[in-house]
Amino acid sequence: MNEIYRKRIKKALLLLKSAPTSQALVLSSNPPATRSRDTHFPYRQNSDLYYLTGTSHQSLILVLRPHAAEQVVIVAPPEDPLKKVWDGAQPSTKSLAREIGATQLLSKDPLSAVRQLLRGTDTAYLQSVPGTVSAQLRKDFAERSPHALRGLPGSVIEAERLTSRLRCIKDASEIELIRKAADLTSASLLHSAQFIKPGIRERELAVLIEYLYRLHNAEPAFNTIVATGSSAATLHYHELSRKLRKGELLLIDTGCELDMYACDVSRTIPVSSETQAPLEAVYECVLHAQEAAIRAVAPGVRMTDVHAVAARELTYGLKQLGVLRGNISELLKKGAYKPFFPHGIGHSLGIDVHDVGPGPSDSLGILEKGMVVTIEPGLYFSKPTGKIPACGVRIEDDVLVTARGCEVLTAEVFPKRLEEIRNIVE
Ligand code: GLY
Ligand code: MN
Ligand 1 test: best mutation among 252, 396, 399, 410, most atoms within 8 Å of CB? Predict the structure, then answer.
């Protein structure tokens, strides 16, 4: 594992070095987030720092300076014996320094220590995470008073501009971790699906899925959405209060985060065997659009091009359903599908569920081999429309861009054909 982090740090140093002036990168641990007074949310490490070090240390700073004698430095406060009594020991900085080939600097004043390390740097890549040394340095830089600026670099750039260039292409170990997250998501979904029946509440299913994640040392990568009938038309529905009803569709959007890597899938499932015919037609239309969009994923293609493929299929389907009328090209030009498909086709996936890399509306972001993106078209009817009852259908998979096309990493997560789904649910 250590070699992985050394390799990533080397890549970051090379990127910093490629500029004609001296550049440095400063990354801090996320500060623990307060829930109320002295109670905290579960700790989540900063994704950029984790990517380069693999550490879960809660008060560590990594400084990369290719122009200095000590190119890789970790700054941390000396161990606090009282904190150790309450929260346990932090991971050893000495071992981390050895593993990643860094110099260790223990300091009670990390802000001054980092300022000192940045002397002679022209440009610093700094994060804007509140409560970090980087955020304080950015504030000092913005104030521009001679005192605050003393020793600071001449210019400051958001750290993500650099880290996203490293993180957007996944290496083999990352793809393996996403596959593992997909396996656990799959097992949890399949197990939970046997409890799908009219009368149970959305929350019961969501809690069961997330219980299974936690039982296997994972976390939900985001709040699981379980939405049935009309509640599925709310994209990020979180009430989870409705009961499953016969004949309706159930939308589950979930994924675990295992060893810091996320999975994110959506499946839409009939609650009972006698699904209303117009709902089946909406389902087939979304499935068709998703399959066409996945076929479009390849190196050199933009996410907006993939979106366009799905939009065309959905527009065609909406016309078949009698929801839209007119010429397909005209309907597409007008964006007539947008009230029924109001979100993007997908997003990058990795350490963050909405990861760095080409986003849904990023016409500049071109897909490259090694990127992982979700493909998640949907159709939503917030009120009955013609024969279609209020409903939401979304089908989402995680897709790895390969040399010639793509591989669906979540192909085994849960079936998508209605006949196969019925075999599991009934
Ligand atoms: N799965 C939730 C989202 O992509 O927003
Ligand atoms: Mn998603």
Answer: 396
